[in-house]
User: What shape does this take?
Amino acid sequence: MKDLLRLLGLYRRHVGWILLSMLVSLVATLANVGLMAISGWFITAMAAAGLTGIAMNYFTPAAIIRTLAILRTGGRYIDRVVGHEATLRLLADTRAHLFARMVPLAPAALDDLRSGDLLARLKADIDRLELTFLRLLSPLIVALLTLAAVGLLLFLYDGLLSAGVLAVLAGCGLLAPALAAVAAAGPGRALTARSADLRRLVVDDLSGLMPLIAVGAFAGHRDRLVGAMASLVQAERRLARRAAFGQALGRLSGDLALIVALAVGVPLVAASRMEGPDLAMAALLSLSAAEVFMGLPAAFLGVSSTLASARRLFAILDRKPPVIEPANPRPLPEGRDLRLDGVTLHYPGGLRPALDGVSLDIPFGSRVALVGKSGAGKSSVAALLARLRDPDLGEIRLGGVPLADLALADVRRTVGVVPQRPHLFTLTLEENLRLGRPSATAEELAAAIEAAGLADFVARLPQGLATPVGVAGATLSGGEARRVAIARALLPDPDILVLDEPGEGLDPETEAAVLERVLDRMAGRTVILITHARAALHRMDRVVKLDEGRIAANRAASEV
Ligand SMILES: Nc1ncnc2c1ncn2[C@@H]1O[C@H](COP(=O)(O)OP(=O)(O)OP(=O)(O)O)[C@@H](O)[C@H]1O
Assistant: This one.
């Protein structure tokens, strides 16, 4: 219930469209029910008039019938247009809202989710919310109002007639599908989970297809995929069985209501308490009112899977961003000295802290190598310096001001990071580079490419900078991709550059040449180099060794 209310809360901003859509839908439905009822009355009254030879005014009912027919047809058209407008606005809004909330979570607070899972939440889960309004909420309210109108009209003739018809309509049209939906809650949840599983598997396996084939594990993954599809079909089948039960009773509701109307109405006519044409009207009114229940069984069944989707969305919306933008950021200080003071960082589930009381001074303009065994905490320092995470304890200061007090954009403009696993987008080489600084001139772009040691490579490409790099840079070698990432980080001219193992994928000569150029370009500014390559150390001022999250040594490079 809490989730349903929260879901409805998402609709608040579109309440005008929602009310308009419901109003149009109600008018179209009442016009349809009224059309059937008045037509029944009119035909019977005309037949009776013909038999008895009494003249009757047929202009007024004929005009009413024509008006209702126009209202019904036009209303249904407008109902579709307005209903979809309301729903699509809601979906677009929710998708944008969720994406905007994901951005500050990335990457640290989304580490545990696979990209296929995130895609499923952004796409399929939000699409499923459509069911709540278009197929459930609006039809349910319209059905209840129509029932009330029908019940009131029949009550004017006879209380029992009204009660009998309402009981059948509500029992078969509303109660039975609602019970079927309760019985289907389990399969509904399973369906959402299975389709998310399948999407995750497809996206993951496709992006990892090469290694899967290479290690001969493809057959196993294909079997897993086939298994996931089979359990999806099974969940759908279970849901469909329960849906069939609710739908069958829903469809029966009109016929049963007609029988009840006749069973109660015929004695009323026989006792002259009701006119024959009025009975025809009541019978057709009862039959046609059942139309409002047609879509409800399926919508009721969709409630549990829609709520499961909503919960998956809320789970993202409720995540706490790993870093908070200060409400009133302090201005960027003049100084660029970095100071880490008792910095401690725990990853969730980590057995020991990744960083444990690290204190370190990095004056502006210095060149510091961070070394240490794999897992020592080097990349964690890089993440903290770019404020992708915040320390649990201790503080990092830039020019004497805590990083947490500065605007995130200022921090990230000042501290450029080439991560250990840089990501290239499925764009051209130039578009990937310009992400670093969209307004860069051609000369600035060329200078960054030169500094990253990419100039020869670009010159050899037939399409030059317009070359597409493929999905995640798949058409580039590991070393080329890394140099693109270096050029991208150099383009905005950061005052502090953190290079996380920039030599990976490069031969030793190229690595040395690239480092040389980067250091030249960064002359007078700070470079922090995370590396396992001893050869690079003589180009640095200090070498800081980390061991299990602590500083094990901090020496001048000449002493190493
Ligand atoms: N996102 C994460 N979630 C949980 N634990 C993490 C995460 N990132 C790193 N760790 C853990 O924190 C510790 C430090 O990791 P970090 O990546 O900083 O080491 P590193 O020195 O850069 O290692 P490498 O040289 O292999 O890149 C490791 O034990 C690692 O398993």
In short: The pocket of adenosine-5'-triphosphate is lined by residues 111, 347, 350, 354, 372, 374-380, 420 (CB under 6 Å).
